[in-house]
Design brief:
Number of strands: 7
Structural class: mainly beta
Distance between the termini: 70 Å
Largest sheet: 3 strands, mixed
Oligomer: single chain
Strand order of the largest sheet: 3-7-6
Number of helices: 0
């Protein structure tokens, strides 16, 4: 827009004002963790009880960015091998998946 300013002496000044709106920056963070694990992003802890959220990041210029966080929690797996073998002290038993 254009603004006209009048000084006490009667002189006019014309100022042209142009605003540019920057687009909102968005991102996605998809992460996979094991049951019982967690990670922290932007001060928020994500785990099995908190698997999603939207985080706001503020740049030094004051502009905001939004990051959508989604967490997939994999269950812990356990197995009992059906192998009965004698093991001597110092030996190792390697199980293949």
């Amino acid at each position: 827009g254009t603004e006209v300013l009048t000084a006490a002496s009667g002189c006019d000044s014309t100022i042209t004002v142009t605003l540019t709106e920057l687009p909102l920056i968005t991102g996605v963070l998809d992460s996979t963790i094991c049951s019982g694990d967690s990670f922290m992003f932007n001060g928020t802890t994500y785990d099995a009880s908190n698997t999603s959220g939207v985080e706001t990041l503020v740049a030094a210029s004051g502009c905001d960015s939004l990051v959508t966080v989604t967490v997939t929690v994999n269950p812990n797996l356990s197995a009992t091998p059906d192998v009965v073998a004698p093991i001597c002290l110092g030996d190792a038993l390697i199980l293949a998946a």
